[in-house]
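Can anyone check this?
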Amino acid sequence: MSTPTTHDDQTPVTSKPAAAPASAIQRHTGRWIEHWDPEDKTLWEDGGRRTARRNLVFSIFAEFLGFAVWAVWSIVVPQLPAAGFDLTVDQMFWLVSVPILVGATLRIPYTFAVPVFGGRNWTIASALLLLLPTGALILAVGDPTTPFPVLLAVASLAGLGGGNFASSMANISFFFPVKEKGAALGLNAAGGNLGTAVVQLVVPLVIVTGAGVSLGRAGLIFIPFILLAAFLAWRWMDNLATAKADPRSFGVAIHDKHTWIISFIYIGTFGSFIGYAGAFPTLLASQFPEVAIPLAFMGALVGSIARPFGGILSDRVGGMVVTVGSFAVMALGAMGAIYALGTGSFALFFGSFLVLFVATGMGNGSVYRMIPAVFRASGATAKAAAGCIGIAGAIGAFGGFLIPRGFALSTTLAGSLVPALWLFIGVYAVMALVTWLVYGRGAMAQARV
């Protein structure tokens, strides 16, 4: 048996403490976890699952606030005339559209922020950044003489909330094993989407509390929750040293045709969801002014709830089938809205849009489920699928900009929403056909993508 090595003074030199096993969760200063492998069953069962779920809970809360801030102008805009603002219909739709455009643009850089700064650190930073759009909102809407360009600039700041979705999804994807990743990302996405519904429910109630209408409260109510989200992330979330961005995945995805086909399809599902959610309160206010605007939150609510069910159903019958079915139902919903406008029926108009929202939610879930299945069936690498998720998410969000702009142009040029709705129906028909032609035949059909 060997003896301990000694120095010249004959003092035994004890060996270094044994290193922690590879499967142990090793935390360091700043809540960095050095070793993280959710596929390691020992690590996962010995605290890994608990750590991942804790990060998921606080990520959902922060993303929820991001979506709420992203959508706040959708419910503030219909209230501006009552507060003394003199705006055209086109200007009102611009205020609804520009946050969506900015949020879509920020999605890709926000995705890379997590590996660079750490998921916990970026959740804190991105939450605190929401103080900019909410603080600016408080100042801008307090004076009815605020120029439209200033209102537009302030509304654009709300796009910071739209970027939070991408960074939150990227962060959570690193925490969970493949078999649980879908469920975790589905919960994360649905929790974020609900922020749109909640802000459209709460803001109309808050701004009329007490005497008169105070639009500044629409920004003020966020501040304590933003600070709470930052504190909770600082106190209980973790950074993963093993979370590495691979820019090459975007390069691989860009050169794969399926990235662009899926991105085109996702414009029709997620783009429609976020576009309709942004425009719905303004549509109700303009078409049925006698009806209480707070009902607008129902659209985003049912669309958010439907999203995970779209993924679940796709697991059983295939994402292609659910996606094509979603486009068909979206077209029927738009037709119902056209008929309702002709008859002046609020009930039919409202019900038709709820059908539209449910179909967009189901389609969001089915398209996200299709992505890994499509790239696996085509023989592409996992990198291509990962890159596609980021690219499709950003391009799909750009579709949300087109919906309210379509309504604005239709109203300005034709004095009606009907031409825009017919255009959307035609686009849904094309998207359904493309989905079936590419993924409903041959090897893709056999793989039930």
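Reply from J.R.: I decoded it. The longest helix spans residues 41-76.
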